[in-house]
Amino acid sequence: MQKRLLLIGGGHSHVEVIRRFGLNPEPDVAITLVSPDRHTAYSGMLPGYIAGHYRFEDCHIDLETLCRSAGVMRVKGMVSGIDLQRRIARCADGTEHAFDVVAVDSGSTPAIAGIPGATQHGIPVKPVPAFLDYWATLRPAARKAITDLRIAIVGAGAGGIELALAMHNRIRTDNGRAQFTVVSDGPVLLAAHPAGVQRRFSAVLRERGITLRLNAPVQTATADGLVLGSGEVLRADHVIWVTGAAAPAWPRESRLQTDAAGFIVVNAHLQSPSHECVFATGDIAVMPATPRPKSGVYAVRQGPPLTENLRRALRGEPLREYRPQRRALALIITGDCYAVASYGPLAFDGAWVWQWKDYIDTAFMQRYRGTPRELS
Ligand SMILES: Cc1cc2nc3c(=O)[nH]c(=O)nc-3n(C[C@H](O)[C@H](O)[C@H](O)COP(=O)(O)OP(=O)(O)OC[C@H]3O[C@@H](n4cnc5c(N)ncnc54)[C@H](O)[C@@H]3O)c2cc1C
Question: How many CB atoms lie within 10 A of CB 267?
Fold first, then answer.
C-alpha cells in the first residue's frame, strides 16, 4: 500500500530531502510539501541580497520547480497543528493533510513575544517574505528622506550585525539617508564568536558610523522608538527585530514533546521521542543530548541523515544515528564584498573570505536548480 510522507516547511533540510528523493525515488511513497510561499530564502545569502550583491533568484530556492522535478506535490499552506492520533496536519486555512510519516523543518522567528508593542512597531526579519516587502518600501523612503531615517536593529548576533551592515551599504549606494543603531541586551556583540571576530566587527561598525548599544534590553516598542531598560527612549523611525529564535505555539499545542521554549525535541535519529512518526530538523528542532546553535549550517547538514531515516521509517527498517558536527565555520559579511571567518577560537578576514563564501553559497544554490539529473 502507498505510504504518505508529509514535509512541513521548505527549510534548509527539506530542500535536500526533496532533491534526494527526486534522484532516487522511493517506490510506493507519495510525498507532499506544505509551504506558505513558492520561494524559500537561503539565509547564507540573504544579507548579500540586502547589500545588493545578489538578485532575488540567486538567494531563493523555487520550491515549485524543485518539487515538480522531484515528483513531490507542493501545496500552499501554513501548518497550524497536527492531530497525532489521526495523523493529520491542519493548515491555518482549514485544509488537512494526512500522513504516515511527517517531517517538520519550518524554522523559527525572532523572539519578540515578551516585548509589548514589538509587532505593531517594527518588523521581524522572519518570515523573510514580509521582511523583504518592508525593505522594498524602506529603500525608496530613505532615498526621499530630507533628514536621516533612524533605523534600529535589535539583536547583535551574526544575523543582526550582517543585516545592519548590509542595509547600511545598500542605502549608502542608493544615496539614501539613514542613521543605524544596533541594540543588544548583552555585554558584547557576536557573543557566540571569538574576541578576534568581535574586535573586527566593533571596528567596522565604528568606521561606518553605526552606533552599538550594548547592555540595553528593550522593554517596550512605541511609535517613538524603543524604551530601554534604563528608561531611556531610543528614538527610531524603523525597528528591525533580529533577536534570538522563538518557536511557534503549534508543536506544543499538538502535544508533541517540546523543550521549555517550545522547540520540538528530537533524539539522535532526528525523531520525536514522544511520537515516532514525527521527525524534525533545523531551527524548530532541539537535540537535548547534543545541543547546537540555531544556524542554517546545522539545518543543511541534517538533510542527508533525515532523508535516510525517512526512507527507513517508511520501510519499517531500523533508523541510523546522527551526530552533529561539534563546531561550524561562520563566514560573516561586512556588506561591502568583504567577510570575517569565525571557527572555534580562530578569526581571519579579507575580500578573499567573501569570495570564498560566495563560491560556497553559489555552489549550494546550484544544487537546487534544474532537473533531478542535473541536480546530482
Ligand atoms: C539575517 C540572517 C542571516 C543569517 N545568516 C546565516 C548564515 O550565514 N549562516 C547560517 O548558518 N545561518 C544563518 N542564519 C540563521 C538561519 O537563517 C537559520 O538558522 C536557518 O534559516 C534555519 O533553517 P531552517 O531549515 O530551520 O528554516 P528556514 O530556513 O527558516 O525555513 C523554514 C521554511 O518553513 C516555512 N514555514 C514556516 N512556518 C511554516 C508552517 N507553519 N507551515 C509550513 N511552512 C512553514 C517558511 O516559509 C520557510 O520557507 C541567518 C539568520 C538571519 C536572520
Answer: 16
DSSP secondary structure letter of residue 57: G
Q: Which domain holds residue 91?
A: 3-110+245-326+357-375
Q: What is the pLDDT of residues 39-76, one digit of tens each?
A: 999 999 999 999 999 999 999 999 999 999 999 999 99
Ligand 1 atom nearest to CA at 299: 25
Could you tell which of 17, 54, 106 is best to mutate to test the pocket of ligand 1, judged by most ligand atoms within 8 Å of the CB?
Answer: 106
Cα-to-centroid distance, 257 and ligand 1 (Å): 21
- pLDDT digits over 8-17, tens only? 999 999 999 9
What does the alpha-carbon distance between residue 226 and residue 170 come to, in Å, rounded to a whole number?
A: 24
- Please state the pTM of the whole predicted model: 0.96
Show the ligand 1 pocket: residues with CB < 6 angstroms: 8-13, 34-37, 40, 43-44, 46-47, 78-79, 105-107, 125, 127, 159, 162-163, 242, 282-284, 294-297, 299
Distance, CA 107 to ligand 1 centroid (Å)? 5
Residue 349 lies in a domain: no
Residue listed under C-alpha cell 517550545:
262
